Amino acid sequence: MSEVFDLTCELIRRRSLTPDDAGCIGLIAARLERSGFRCEHLRYGEVSNLWAMHGQGDPVLAFLGHVDVVPSGPEADWTSKPFEPNVRDGKLYGRGAADMKSGVAAMVVALEKFVTAHADHPGTIALLLTSDEEGPTNLDGVRRVAQHFRETGQRIDWCVVGEPSSKQKLGDLIRVGRRGSLSLKLTAHGVQGHVAYPELAKNPIHAVASALAELAATRWDEGNDDFPPTTFQISNIHGGTGALNVIPGNVVIDANFRFGTASNASSLRERTEAILEKHGIEHSIEWNLSGEPFHSPEGGKLRQTVIDVCRGLCGIAPEPSTGGGTSDGRFIAPLGAEVVEIGPVNASIHKVDEHVALDDLERLPAIHQAIAQRLLG
What is the CATH number of the domain that holds 215? Predict the structure, then answer.
């Protein structure tokens, strides 16, 4: 049907489960090299990363995406096979159709068209891709590339992330920031014993229950103009020995804070520890800060450019939001870049029968090309 449709289908056919890029990055690098891009392959462990540049000097406009996808789940639950692109009722179906192989394809096509029209554009236009966005740690993806950029002095002024951000219509919402994510693995210690002799044991589940209730009920902050209030959620509780008549010696609780700039990771850790101490919980905690909050302020050049492009090409004034999960933009923002996310509707991401509307797919390259045109054209 079109270049972006064909490339999206080719990417969907590749079973690129984290961290395997299944050849997606090589395919894209070959295309961009034919358009005059200089491609640097940054391989860390099993993870493939691509940094492709055209032009030189400042300012630097980078487009950011990932080629890896989450597992499909039982393929029998899908109406059509998840790794065979299928068109039905004006939609393209397949794992990664929305998150985010359509976005990657759109950025590639937009960059090709932009440099063809503006071979001598000012500054640098670039594409950064990884095969480690959907994984549990993201250690060797954009996080590691950002560290490499710090060491080499590579700057980025503006970063457009192609993650699916829209709610109901293409361009109705853009991400102008993301909350920080602080996870914890809390182990409450007790004494194992027989349930018939509780006086000879110490049940850590009973001991920690009141502390968990207080943690869940605590109002951590009130948020601010840029971010909603901090949230705390328990995601899992692991306890027991497998026997119904044994009091466990330990119980493990997994939980997560999503926080804006009204709090910080240090204060959340300190307040959590204080609550556990107040309840007399014998415990140990493993903390993992996977990203600090970041925000592109109102009036930022990239933010205003994306808003203007959405108004012009989508006929809608996008809602600026800092909600949702995390994205790889959290690793680029600390480099000093203004980061904005714009992409297709996210309603089907990670679900059975994931899809992207064909009309949206065809408009995506024009959005990215228009952003580049306004900033570097």
Answer: 3.30.70.360
Q: Are 110 and 235 part of one and the same domain?
A: no
Pair 44, 112 in one domain: yes
Helix (H) or strand (E) holding 210: helix 204-217
- Residues 51 and 165 occupy one common structural domain: yes
Give me the active site residues, please: 68, 133
Strand partners, 174: 320
Residues 9 and 109 in one domain: yes
Q: Where are the alpha helices (DSSP H) in 14-155?
A: 24-34, 102-117, 142-152
Neighbours of 14 (CB within 10 A): 18
- Cα dihedral: 265, 268, 272, 273 (round 10): 60
Residues 14 and 134 in one domain: yes
Cα(373)–Cα(81) distance, integer angstroms = 38
Question: Is the same domain home to 252 and 366?
Answer: no
Q: Which of 235, 256, 291 is the last residue of a domain?
A: 291
Overall number of domains in the chain:
2
Which segments of 224-264 does DSSP mark as H helices, in order?
none
Range of the domain at 371: 3-178+294-376
**CATH of residue 13:** 3.40.630.10
Cβ contact 80:93 at 8 Å: yes
Residue 156 and residue 46 in one domain = yes
Q: Print pLDDT tens along the chain (377 aa).
A: 799 999 999 999 999 999 999 999 999 999 999 999 999 999 999 999 999 999 999 999 999 999 999 999 999 999 999 999 999 999 999 999 999 999 999 999 999 999 999 999 999 999 999 999 998 888 999 999 999 999 999 999 999 999 999 999 999 999 999 999 999 999 999 999 999 999 999 999 999 999 999 999 999 999 999 999 999 999 999 999 999 999 999 999 999 999 999 999 999 999 999 999 999 999 999 999 999 999 999 999 999 999 999 999 999 999 999 988 889 999 999 999 999 999 999 999 999 999 999 999 999 999 999 999 999 98
Radius of gyration of the chain (CA): 23
Tell me, yes or no, whether 142 and 266 share the same domain: no
Note the pTM of the prediction, 2 decimals. Answer: 0.91
How far apart, in whole angstroms, are the C-alpha atoms of residue 80 and residue 87? Answer: 10
